[in-house]
Amino acid sequence: MAHPWPAWQEYTQFDAATQDEDFADAKIAIINEYGIEALQQSWLKVCSELSIVTQEIASKGSDIIPIFDSNQILAKGFTHQQKDAAKSIGAFVCKATISSDDATDLYSDLKTYLDNNKGRIPAWPKESPSMLMLYDSPVQNELRTHPRHLRLQEKLNELWHDSTGETSSAPLIYLDGVRDRAPGQEFLGLGPHIDAGSLARWVDPSYRHVYHEVFSGRPEQLDIYDLGLRKDARQDLYPGIAHSSVLRTFQGWTAFTPTCSGQGTILVYPNASWAIAYVMLRPFFCAPTDPDQIMNASKWTIDRTSAWFPGTVKADSQRLSRSSHPHLRLEECMVAMPPIEPGDTVWWHADVSGDRSGNVSAMDLANDIQVCHAVDTRHDGTQNAAVAYIAACPTTPINKAYVQKQLAAILQGRRAPDYVEDGDTLDERTLVGHCGLHDIDAEGRRAFGFELEVQ
Ligand SMILES: [Fe+2]
After folding, report:
1. What is the b/e burial string over 306-318, where b = at least 16 CB atoms within 10 angstroms of the residue's CB?
2. What CA–CA distance (Å, rounded) separates 291 from 79?
3. Separation of 232 CA from ligand 1 center, angstroms?
4. Which of 255, 293, 404, 410 could serve as a FRET partner for 216 with CA atoms 20 to 30 Å apart?
5. In whole angstroms, what is the distance from residue 227 CA to residue 247 CA?
6. Strands 67-69 and 318-319, how do they pair?
7. Is the CB of residue 258 less than 8 Å from the CB of residue 376?
8. Cα dihedral 253/426/195/67 (nearest 10)
9. Spatial contact of 176 and 195, defined as CB atoms under 8 Å apart
10. How big is the chain by its Cα radius of gyration, in Å?
11. Are 252 and 387 in contact, with CB atoms under 8 Å apart?
12. Tens digit of pLDDT for each residue in 94-103?
């Protein structure tokens, strides 16, 4: 990173979570199921591979992030080479998903909408509101259902696979908010985190099984693109505002304005499989007391008894820090997305860490990272950094059930289920300029869940 590491929290001490027996139970259950030998075997392999992975990231910086042309992806799909790059890095940019002019016009419309509804739309943080808890505006709905955007979402869903026949790559829409961040706004809240649940990854049987190969001593066989394994995982096993109920194959945002490093963009850890394998193994090992030996994986010892899961808090996303996850070398390896233009889209896998984004909530601002990700703490640009959070969601039983509830909620002016805990009760139907879903075309209506059978 070009600037000093922000004052993000370090997870070095046992915290309140150690009091909760669910943590210790999860650790014991996994040790009993897989055995210490397999865990140790995996630990050594993962740390060894990370030393290679992190070397490459540190030398390439942001250049390691793949950049794709949306026109090509939409017309011909990903080439084998592009597919490999997208999947191994787990984060990428799609240029000109919609045209720059269209994105700029939509931003102008959004600003008008915000002006016409001044004081009515909740936003965080209170001292410099930039995360807007706005979900059902005409601009957001137009973007989400834009034919090119929907087709791209489907292409991204197709990067996953499933042999069960219970899912499809047809995109469903997951309502999320907007970020509109003025220049000069500091934003410390969103440190490195991984969304899609925290302790649930170890406790929920379906979710734990996603990482079966890691616990079995075969981390090189981990497949984080197996939708058949992942479709039943309960990300929201422990309720919390930070957890989405749906599986997003890739979280994402669509840029309204240009942005680049140091100007309010997202930082990601540009590796998916090895980083999440490390995070999953980390609670089972104690660091050596000699600080000079920290990077020597063979000096770490099995932790059978403590209930400490570094950076794991039930109700929040999985957090990471330099001291608790040293082999990730976060300071060198959290890289900013390359320069982004209006209409470009940015995507990151559900296991990638970064600065906080995703569900826009008060909790997000208290701390935030997926393919481990984080949000730039600085915004030194000259214009607002504005994005709409729009993810790629495949059709799965859990996602369908959520989308049905989501649709019923917004048609009745209520918050979608994942945002109810935010506590505000704004009925967006009462906002000036609200137009609902009347103008959405057939494909958009399908993605919104209009065609789903009532269950
Ligand atoms: Fe996030």
Report:
1. ebbbbbbbbebbb
2. 45
3. 21
4. 293
5. 9
6. unpaired
7. no
8. 0
9. no
10. 21
11. no
12. 999 999 999 9
| Domains of the chain by residue range | 16-448
Mention the CATH class of domain 16-448.
mainly beta
CA of 439 to the centre of ligand 1 (A): 31
**Environment class of 405 (CB within 10 Å of its CB; exposed 0-12, middle 13-18, buried 19+):** middle
Is-contact 384 131, C-beta < 8 A? no
What is the CA(356)–ligand 1 centre distance, in A? 4
Report the separation in Å between the CA atom of 251 and the middle of ligand 1, taken as the mean of its atom positions. 8
In the reported structure, the alpha carbon of residue 410 is separated from the centroid of ligand 1 by a whole-number distance in angstroms of 23
Percent above pLDDT 70 for the chain: 89
CA distance 412 to 425: 12
Mean pLDDT to the nearest integer, 198-215 = 97
- What DSSP string runs through 240-272? -TT--SSPPSEEEEEESS-B-TTBS-EEE-S-S
* Cα–Cα distance measured from residue 234 to residue 221, given in angstroms and rounded to the nearest whole number: 22
Question: What are the angstrom distances between the C-alpha of 170 and each of 96, 153, 198, 204, 395?
Answer: 21, 8, 27, 26, 6
Whole-prediction pTM value? Answer: 0.93
On whether the CB atoms of residues 179 and 387 are closer than 8 A, the answer is yes
pLDDT at 191 over 90: no
